[in-house]
Design a protein that fits this description.
heterodimer, A: 224 residues, 2 domains, B: mainly alpha
Chain lengths: 224, 124
Amino acid sequence: MARMTNTLELQPIVAGHADAVWAALGEPGAWWTGAERLAIAKIARISAPRPLWDRVPALDTLSRDRGVEGLSPFLVALAERLAVEPSLFSRDEVQAIAAEIGDAAYAELASVICSVVAIDQAATALGNPYRSFPAPEAGDPSRVRPEGMADVGGHIEMSEVNFGPNVARSLSLAGADHTRWQMLTFTMYAGEGFAEMVWDDRALSRPQVELLAARTSALNECFY
Amino acid sequence: MLLGLSSDAIDADIELGAVTGQAEAPIPHSAELANFAEASWRRDGSLDDARAALLAALGAAALVEAAQTVAIFRSLNIAADSSGIPLDDGWRESAEEFIGELGLDKFSTAANTPGFLAASDVSG
């Protein structure tokens, strides 16, 4: 099979939102500093599924002492598990983690991972190199919790008001990170055409896109 | 569900097994698309060939859309699983129809998805 020699680029609108997501990785968030967010992002990048004989250690056995990049072994393992085996988190486990580090801090950590995975995975799929991480910016987290959050039946609170499928509000407790990720999702998937079952203005038809989506979700064993 | 609805819209009678790799979907270039999704998920040496095959079959613009789709769905899966979002009301009824047929009740998230058990019980 012939190999490609030309670099394939994200669609410009996707690249624009990816730029915004990427720049924010190094900025202080609501619950994590810029350096901590970048440490989380780097774990998301390097994490890969482990063989059966080399599992991520149980979170309750790991030290909570913060290391040189601001993350404890517990947080490193949490980030790794979210990146590669999120389907194994139970409601009880997530709620115990949220009680320990804060539910909004958990949501922000997960949202950073979702953002890095989306952008890095697209690069991998296209055969492109990964982006360089931004430099960390100084400053303290804002510690501002978004308003309008409620228990709607998930593992953590999320926006009480919803204008789309539940996944659109999944990590709304992460505030600005979730909003940026939502825009990235919007442009990388259906855009304005979510409710339309026939797309005639794109390179792929709606069933072709949904086949890719369904196959990927099945491989990830994501029931939702 | 959206695969089913969008296939209905073009009168394509899709087998649910296409989702889990047990059947080929009657969608143009479904084999290249499924192979690309699988190779992207594995992130191994098969990805170069899968990418080249999809490029040859559908062109660069389609390859970019495909890459964006598989990437954002890996991300969406993490968001869904980490937050434990419940099934959407409108999707629960559809889920009842295919849970058993596809073996989705074997997925590790089955027990962790609020609303799943009710749908599973109905189907069983």
